[in-house]
Fold this sequence. Notes:
Largest sheet: none
Radius of gyration: 21 Å
Shape: globular
Number of strands: 0
Helix content: 55-70%
Number of domains: 1
Amino acid sequence: MGLLGRYYDQTREGKGVSKSDRRDKGLFNFFDVYTTNFWKLTLLALIWLLFSLPVVTMPAATCGFVYVIRNMVRKKGVFLWSDFVDTFTKYFWKSLPLGIADLVVYALSYIAARWYGIMGGLFPFEEGQFAQVNMFYLIGFGVVFAFAALYTMMRMYSYMQLVSFEFGYFQILKNSFYLACLGFLRNFFVIFIRAFIVVILWYIATIGNTVGFGIVIVITPLLVIGFRGYLINYNAFAVIYKYIVGPYEEEQAQLKKDAGEETEESEPIFTDTGKREE
């Protein structure tokens, strides 16, 4: 069953999404879904900020954020507040390991990159002096930077898997690594767009003393957070469907065909695990 392992769960109630709505249809579909849900994404970003306390509640808030966007991409009906709160509540504890992993990986990467950079002559010591250029340490800096970039790509998929499948943490991390590699070009493009947005915000913040900074403070929650989250999760949905859900559906269809059973167009793809069980 490929990346899916044995944890795929089809217990979601009701019909699934037709295959015509599941496929990645390119830029037209990307902007169509985005413009249709623009104001919901803005409100979602504000809700995410309201619920996000670093490490403690941010992982659960991210689960709610990802779950709502995933349903937007699937063109399902979205009940913004209830969907977010239900997912936040259910995944408050389940998401903590991912949040702790994020903290540990990025903290250690920062410490290691700074140390290698200083020793390699890329960054100054606290006294302001630079060490002599050392290629060994510069290579170490490059390795740490590459690892952090890879983990950033993996992180695009971890939270969506958590709210979509009955996977364990090891399976999520393993799948995320494979997906980061298989969808490398798409992932790189997403990271490039995210970096470009940061550069634009930094440039705006430097305009007119506090005026530019004020503009950034306003547009970040109203425009940037929603678009950034949508960009990441639209890409994640497309790659997960291509490499996880698609092969599974083909396998199940073939099994039914071999058994002489009729296949239905609207079989469930993702579980609605964000909803609390009654």
